[in-house]
Specification:
single chain, about 300 residues, alpha/beta, Dna Topoisomerase Vi A Subunit, Chain: A, domain 2, Arc Repressor Mutant, subunit A, 2 domains, three-stranded mixed sheet, 13 helices, about 15% strand
């Protein structure tokens, strides 16, 4: 039996529950950085390893080895008909990992029996009896779930994010937490009102009343999420980008405090546009947002994407 889950903390909890089987952590922050369509699995590992290394989160060669071992372990389980249990939470971080795993199952189908633990709470926070109960209630995964996972993974990796909107217009009930996760992903596109992503805006709004220590700022911003998916390292990446010269929107002020600049306040008020004053070169899945010409925007009122000119 192979248990596949989101990271080390969940692995530790599932292991402590003594359910049996091997444990595999699917470590990757897929909601950040390039996840392009049209590359092989090996090429995608190279793309992801390079991104994670550039963020300063890992050594590129080591993370490339880890990703290869991860994929090989899953492929071995599929080919051998090993029982596979997927443990993924309700947030965007986990749901994207689930889609990647389901896509691999779609293209490498063996005789494996696959089931899934669908958790509306964080696995690392649950007790051993709760994890045992979740395992007992695991739901078998069949062609319907795997096909939906394949289509959703393709939509996420498409260079046209309207494919996600098309997916959201259909029936996603086979994967119960997919709809809110993908809807939240779309809110990471720069807004039509101020050019900020939802995560960026939440950080700036928390600073509107005065400076905050980094950890307090992170926790305050995360309290505004229905399902937490941003870790502290990713949040630090957001702040570093907003603080980059020229025209920073935030800056550090002694002892790890962050504060809004005058320009940050103007952007937050809708008087300036984050993309116009800061530029943008960012990947969201398969979409490269590159100012000034290739910037998809999120209209928070219509709750629709606004394409760049000519798209």
């Amino acid at each position: 039996m192979l248990h596949v889950t989101n990271g080390d903390a969940a692995v530790e909890g599932i292991g402590a529950a003594q359910i049996g089987g091997d444990l595999l952590a699917w470590r990757d922050v897929l909601h950040e950085g390039p996840v392009p369509m049209g590359v092989t699995a090996a090429e995608l590992r190279t793309v992801r390893a390079g991104f994670l290394a550039r963020c300063g989160w890992a050594d590129e060669r080591e993370v490339l080895r880890q990703l290869a071992r991860r994929d090989q372990r899953l492929d071995k389980a599929i080919a051998a008909g090993e029982e596979i249990v997927l443990w993924f939470e309700h947030d965007l971080y986990d749901q994207l990992q689930l889609l990647q795993v389901l896509d691999r199952l779609a293209f490498q189908r063996g005789a494996a029996r696959v089931s899934a633990v669908f958790s509306g709470d964080y696995l690392a926070a649950q007790s051993t009896p709760e994890l045992v109960a979740l395992f007992a209630a695991a739901r078998e995964i069949g062609p319907l779930e795997i096909e939906l996972g394949r289509r959703a993974w393709a939509a996420f990796r498409s260079e046209d994010p309207r494919r996600i909107e098309e997916l959201l217009a259909g029936d996603l009930s086979a994967l119960p937490y997919l709809r809110p996760a993908l809807a939240r992903h779309l809110e990471q596109f720069p807004s039509t009102t101020d050019g900020l992503s939802r995560s960026e805006r939440q950080a700036l709004e928390e600073l509107a009343d005065g400076p905050l220590p980094a950890l307090e700022l992170f926790r305050a911003a995360q309290r505004r999420e229905q399902a937490h998916f941003v870790g502290d390292a990713v949040f630090e990446l957001y702040l570093a980008e907003l603080a980059r010269e020229p025209n920073p929107l935030v800056e550090q002020a002694g002892e790890g405090y962050w504060l809004l600049t005058a320009l940050g306040r103007a952007v937050l008020a809708g008087e300036e546009d984050r993309v116009a004053v800061r530029g943008l070169d960012r990947w969201l899945g398969g979409v490269r947002l590159l100012a000034p010409r290739r910037v998809w925007r999120w209209n928070p009122t219509a709750r629709r994407l606004k394409p760049p000119p000519g798209a």
